[in-house]
Design brief:
One of its GO terms (molecular function) is ATP binding. It is built from 28 helices and 35 strands. The chain is an alpha+beta fold. A hairpin with a 2-residue loop joins strand 32 and strand 33. Helix 2 crosses helix 25 and helix 20 packs across helix 23. The longest helix is centred in the last third of the chain and has 23 residues. The radius of gyration is 35 Å and the shape is globular. It binds ligand ANZ and zinc ion. Ligand ANZ binds next to strand 11 and strand 15. Zinc ion binds next to loops.
C-alpha cells in the first residue's frame, strides 16, 4: 500500500516547504490526512511492543461536543501519544454511549425517531472529534444502540438470569398517574411529574435486579488493589458500598396491644445505646404500620402521604422528619419495658429491617423526632466533657463514650458494650451481631423505549423464560417516535407477541429495557475485540489489553458508573471471559471547565444570562477587569462570578468556535497549559490568544532557521559557555517535562519548560555553525516535547527540520546528563541581606573558595568599607550573605 511510501519520506525536506506564516488549518488537515492514509493509530495485539490501553469515557451523543469532552479527550490523547513515544503499542478507542432518555425527549420535541436523532448526532460529533486530531483507532468504534453490541449484553443477561445473579422482584418506582408512566428520579420535580405536573405516587412493579450485593465485599476490598486511583474516588465508593458492623436486635411484641406473638427486628450500629431506646419507629410500608392503620384513618392517610413523593434517597434524607404514633407496643429485649411503636417517614423500608430502635439522646434523626413529638430522651453515653445529661439539650451526642444509666453495662466503652450486650441478647435469643451493606441490588428495568430490550419472554405455564442464544438479539425497532405516555414497546403487539421458547405456547415478550449504565459497564472490554462475533469479547484480546492502563473521565462518574463497571468486570471474570479482577488500573478524574458569568436583572426580577462570547470585558492598564459590556448594544452587564459551564448560566463556550478560529493545536495547548488535569480549568479569551501566540513564535523561529539552509553537526567539545547554558536549558527541560508528564500528568508545567527553552533559543545568534546546530537540537527537542500536546504543528516541524519518519514514531527525547553539568555557577551576593551583585565560581569550588571570592568582590569591599565582617553565610549553588557592622 502507498501508506508505506508516506512513512519513508525523504530525510531532508526542501525548506521552501515551510510557509512563512503559521497556518493551522492547512497543516492540521495535512497531518490528519497523513495519519489517516497510513492508519497510524490502528493497533493489533501482534506487536513486540508492550501494550498500553488508554481509555477516555465515551460520550453520550447529545448533539455536539462541549468543553468538558474536549478537555477529557485531549488529556487522554496527550497520554496516549506520550506513551507511544515511550515505545508502547498504544490502543486508544472511541465509541458512543448511545441509548438514553435525552434521545426520547428530543424525539418527542422534534417528532423524529430517537435512532435517527442519535445517528445524526454521532456523525456530527465524530467529525468534531476528528478535527481535534486525536490518535484514535477508529476501526474499534462502537455504538451501544446497535444490535451487534447489545446482543452480547442480552446474552450475558440470559446467562446471569439462569445462574440467579439476575432475578425478578417487585421494586418501587415513581408513577405519574396522569401520563400513566414511570418516571426517572430526575423527572420528579418537587414531588410532581415534569410534564404533567401530577403528584407522583410510589408504585410497586416487577423489575429485574443484578445481585451486586453478592459482590459487595469484593468490590470494597479490591479498592485496596488500586493504588492508581484517586483516594477521593475510592472513599466515595467505600461510602456508597457502606459496610457497617452492627447488631440485629429483636423486640418481642406486646401481645396485649398487637394481638399476637412475634418480634420486631431492627438493625443498629449502636447496640451500646440499647438501654437508651425510648421508642421504636417503622417505615410506612412495614407490616406493623399496615396493621396499625387498619382501624386508624389518620394513620392510613399519613402512610399514603409517605408513599407519595420521590424515591430518591437524597430526598428522604433532607425532608422534614414526620411521624404518627400507633397503639402498638413492643418489649425492650433486656428490660422488658414497653416501648411505643411509631410510624416515621425517615425510616426506609429497604434498608436494614425497615425499623429502628430510636435513641434520641444519641441519634440526630431520633433526637429531632423526639423533640417534635415530645418523646423521652434518655442519655446512656457520657460525653467527652464528662457530662451525664448535657443541659439544655441542643443536639444528640453521637460520639462513642463510656456507658451510663445502663445498669450492669455502666462504665463499659463502645467495644466492651458491643460484646457484652451481644452476649446478653444471645442468651435470650433476641439478637446477634451482623455486618450489613448500604449497597442495594441494582434494579436495571426501565419502562422506556430507547434502551436495550430485556431478553425475557413471559409464558403462562413456564414463567420468565430467557431468550435462547440462537434467537438473540432481541432487536429494538428503530423507527418509533415515542409520545411520552408510557413505553411505546408496550403498545406494539408486533414487538411483544411471541411464542414461548420452551413450550411454544403464545407468550409475551418483556417490554422493559435496561438501565443505560449496563452498556457503559462493559464497553471497555468490547473495545478490545469490537467486531468479534463468537462472543461478548475475544478472551485473548481482552486479556491482552485489560485492565486499561489509564482511564480518564469526569468525577461525576466516581460512584455509579465506576462501581457498575468494576462489578461487570467481575461478572465477566466469573463467566471466564476475562482473567483479571479490575478493569481500570489507573484513573484520572479531570476537573470541571468553568467560565465567567454575565447577567442583567430582568423586569420580573430574575436574571438574564449572557454568553461570554457575546460580552466584551473592559480592563484597566494593569489588565484588571473593571467591567463588561454586551457586544450587541454596548451597554454594561453585571459580572456574576466564575461557575461551571452550564446551560442555566449560559456560560458555555462552544469549543468548535475556538477550533475554527485558532486550530486544534491552539485549543489543545490552551487546555493543557491553563491548569493541571485534575483541577478546574477557567476558559479565557486571553489564554487562548496566548496559546496561539506561542505556537506562532515556535513556527516563526523554526521557519527562519530552516530557510537559512542545512545545518552541520554540533561539536560538543567546543561549546562556548553561553552555548553550554542553552544546551543545559534544553536538557533540564527534557528532564523536567519527562517527569511532569510521565509521572504526574502535569502537562502545564511541562509546557512551561518548553517555553523556557523557546526563550533561550530565541536569544541564540543564528549565524555561526555551532549556534545553528544548537538551535537545530533545541527545535527538535521542542517538537518532541510538544508532540503529544500540539501534534499537528509538531508533525510539520519535524519534517521541516529534516527528520526522517513521523514525529509520532519518534522516541521521547533523552536527557544528556553531560549537558546538565555546570562548569561554573553564578551566586548572588548580599551584604546584610541586601542584593549587592553576583559572582561566578567554578562548580567544584569549596566553601572556603567561595567565601574568599565573595570577600574579594569589589561591591562587597565597597559596602563593607569601615565595617567589620562578623559572619559569612554560604547557601551552596545560590547565594553568599555577608553580615557586617
Ligand atoms: C440505634 C442508634 C443509636 C443508631 C444511635 C444510630 C445512632 P448505617 O451506619 O448507615 O448502617 N437505621 C437502621 N435501619 C434503618 C432504616 N431502615 N431506615 C432509617 N434508619 C435506619 O446506619 C445504621 C443506623 O441507621 C442504625 O443504628 C439505625 O439507627 C438506623 F445513637 O440504631 B441506629
Ligand atoms: Zn412456556
Amino acid at each position: 500500500m502507498y501508506a508505506t511510501a508516506l512513512i519513508r519520506r525523504a530525510p531532508l525536506q526542501a525548506p521552501a516547504n515551510m510557509h512563512e506564516q503559521y497556518q493551522p488549518s492547512e497543516i492540521e488537515a495535512a497531518a490528519q490526512a497523513h495519519w489517516n492514509a497510513r492508519n497510524a493509530f490502528v493497533v493489533t495485539e501482534e506487536s513486540d511492543k508492550d501494550p498500553y490501553y488508554c481509555l477516555s469515557m465515551f460520550p453520550y451523543p447529545s448533539g455536539k461536543l462541549h468543553m468538558g469532552h474536549v478537555r477529557n479527550y485531549t488529556i487522554g490523547d496527550v497520554i496516549a501519544r506520550y506513551q507511544r513515544m515511550q515505545g508502547k503499542n498504544v490502543m486508544q478507542p472511541m465509541g458512543w454511549d448511545a441509548f438514553g432518555m435525552p434521545a426520547e425527549n428530543a424525539a418527542m420535541k422534534n417528532k423524529v425517531a430517537p435512532a435517527k436523532w442519535t445517528y445524526e448526532n454521532i456523525a456530527y460529533m465524530k467529525a468534531q472529534l476528528k478535527s481535534l486530531g486525536l490518535a484514535i483507532d477508529w476501526s474499534r468504534e462502537l455504538t451501544t444502540c446497535k444490535p451487534d453490541y447489545y446482543r452480547w449484553e442480552q446474552w450475558l443477561f440470559t446467562r446471569l438470569f439462569e445462574k440467579g445473579v439476575i432475578y425478578r422482584k417487585n421494586g418501587t418506582v415513581n408513577w405519574d398517574p396522569i401520563d400513566q408512566t414511570v418516571l426517572a428520579n430526575e423527572q420528579v420535580i418537587d414531588g410532581r411529574g415534569w410534564r404533567s405536573g401530577a403528584l407522583i405516587e410510589k408504585r410497586e412493579i416487577p423489575m429485574y435486579y443484578f445481585r451486586i450485593t453478592d459482590y459487595a465485599e469484593e468490590l470494597l476490598s479490591s479498592l485496596d488493589d488500586l493504588p492508581g486511583w484517586p483516594e477521593q474516588v475510592k472513599t466515595m465508593q467505600r461510602n456508597w458500598i457502606g459496610k457497617s458492623r452492627g447488631m440485629e436486635v429483636r423486640f418481642p411484641y406486646d401481645t396485649a396491644s398487637i394481638g399476637h406473638e412475634g418480634v420486631l427486628n431492627v438493625f443498629t450500629t449502636r447496640p451500646d445505646t440499647l438501654m437508651g431506646a425510648t421508642y421504636v419507629a417503622v417505615a410506612a410500608e412495614h407490616p406493623l404500620a399496615t396493621q396499625a392503620a387498619q382501624n386508624d384513618a389518620d394513620l392510613q392517610a399519613f402512610i399514603d402521604e409517605c408513599k407519595r413523593g420521590g424515591v430518591a434517597e437524597a430526598d428522604i434524607a433532607t425532608q422534614e422528619k414526620k411521624g404518627m404514633p400507633t397503639s402498638l407496643k413492643v418489649q425492650h429485649p433486656l428490660t422488658g419495658e414497653l416501648l411505643p411503636v411509631w410510624v416515621a417517614n425517615y425510616v426506609l423500608m429497604h434498608y436494614g429491617d425497615g425499623a429502628v430502635m430510636a435513641v434520641p439522646a444519641h441519634d440526630e434523626r431520633d433526637y429531632a423526632f423526639a423533640i417534635k413529638y415530645d418523646l423521652p430522651i434518655k442519655p446512656v453515653v457520657r460525653t467527652s466533657a464528662g457530662d451525664e445529661t448535657p443541659e439544655p439539650w441542643q443536639a444528640a451526642y453521637g460520639e462513642h463514650g463510656q456507658l451510663i444509666n445502663s445498669g450492669e453495662f455502666d462504665g463499659l466503652d463502645f467495644d466492651g458494650a458491643f460484646d457484652t450486650i451481644e452476649v446478653a441478647l444471645r442468651k435470650k435469643e433476641l439478637g446477634q451481631s451482623r455486618t450489613q451493606f448500604r449497597l442495594r441490588d441494582w434494579g436495571i428495568s426501565r419502562q422506556r423505549y430507547w434502551g436495550c430490550p430485556i431478553p425475557i419472554v413471559h409464558c403462562d405455564s413456564c414463567g420468565d423464560v430467557p431468550v435462547p442464544e440462537d434467537q438473540l438479539p432481541v432487536v429494538l425497532p428503530e423507527d418509533v417516535v415515542p409520545d411520552g405516555a408510557g413505553s411505546p414497546l408496550a403498545k406494539m403487539p408486533e414487538f411483544y407477541e411471541c411464542s414461548c421458547p420452551k413450550c411454544g405456547a403464545p407468550a409475551k415478550r418483556e417490554t422493559d429495557t435496561m438501565d443505560t449504565f449496563v452498556e457503559s459497564s462493559w464497553y471497555a472490554a468490547r473495545y478490545t475485540s469490537p467486531n468479534y462475533d463468537k462472543g461478548m469479547v475475544d478472551p485473548a484480546a481482552a486479556n491482552h489489553w485489560l485492565p486499561a492502563d489509564q482511564y480518564i473521565g469526569g468525577i461525576e462518574h466516581a460512584i455509579l458508573h465506576l462501581l457498575y463497571a468494576r462489578f461487570f468486570h467481575k461478572l465477566m471474570r466469573d463467566e471466564g471471559l476475562v482473567s483479571n479482577d479490575e478493569p481500570f488500573k489507573n484513573l484520572l478524574t479531570q476537573g470541571m471547565v468553568v467560565a465567567e458569568t454575565y447577567y442583567r436583572i430582568a423586569e420580573n426580577g430574575g436574571k438574564d444570562w449572557f454568553n461570554p462570547a457575546d460580552v466584551e470585558v473592559e480592563r484597566d492598564a494593569k489588565a484588571k477587569v473593571i467591567g463588561a459590556k454586551l457586544k450587541s448594544d454596548g451597554l454594561p452587564v453585571e459580572i456574576g462570578g466564575v461557575e461551571k459551564m452550564s446551560k442555566s448560566k449560559n456560560n458555555g463556550v462552544d469549543p468548535q468556535a475556538m477550533i475554527d478560529a485558532y486550530g486544534a493545536d491552539t485549543c489543545r495547548l490552551f487546555m493543557m497549559f491553563a491548569s493541571p488535569p485534575d483541577m478546574s480549568l477557567e476558559w479565557s479569551d486571553a489564554g487562548v490568544e496566548g496559546a496561539s501566540r506561542f505556537l506562532r513564535r515556535v513556527w516563526r523561529l523554526a521557519q527562519a532557521h530552516v530557510s537559512a539552509g542545512p545545518v552541520g553537526a554540533l561539536d560538543l567539545s567546543s561549546l562556548t559557555d553561553a552555548q553550554k547554558d542553552v544546551r543545559r536549558t534544553i536538557h533540564l527541560a527534557i528532564r523536567q517535562a519527562s517527569s511532569d508528564i510521565g509521572q504526574h500528568h502535569k502537562f502545564n508545567t511541562a509546557i512551561a519548560q518548553v517555553m523556557t527553552v523557546m526563550n533561550a533559543l530565541e536569544k541564540l545568534p543564528q549565524t555561526e555553525t555551532q549556534d545553528r546546530a544548537l538551535l537545530q537540537e533545541g527545535l527538535e527537542s521542542v517538537s518532541l516535547l510538544l508532540a503529544p500536546i500540539a501534534p499537528h504543528i509538531c508533525h510539520a516541524l519535524w519534517h521541516a527540520l529534516g527528520k526522517s519518519g513521523d514525529v509520532i514514531d519518534a522516541a521521547w527525547p533523552k536527557v544528556d546528563e553531560k549537558a546538565l553539568q555546570q562548569d561554573s555557577l553564578t551566586l548572588v551576593i548580599q551584604v546584610n541581606g541586601k542584593l549587592r551583585g553576583q559572582i561566578e565560581v567554578p562548580a567544584s569550588a569549596t566553601r572556603e573558595q567561595v567565601e574568599t571570592e565573595a570577600r574579594a568582590n569589589e561591591n562587597v569591599l565597597r559596602f563593607t568599607d569601615g565595617l567589620t565582617i562578623r559572619k559569612v553565610i554560604v547557601v551552596p549553588g545560590k547565594l553568599v550573605n555577608i553580615v557586617a557592622n
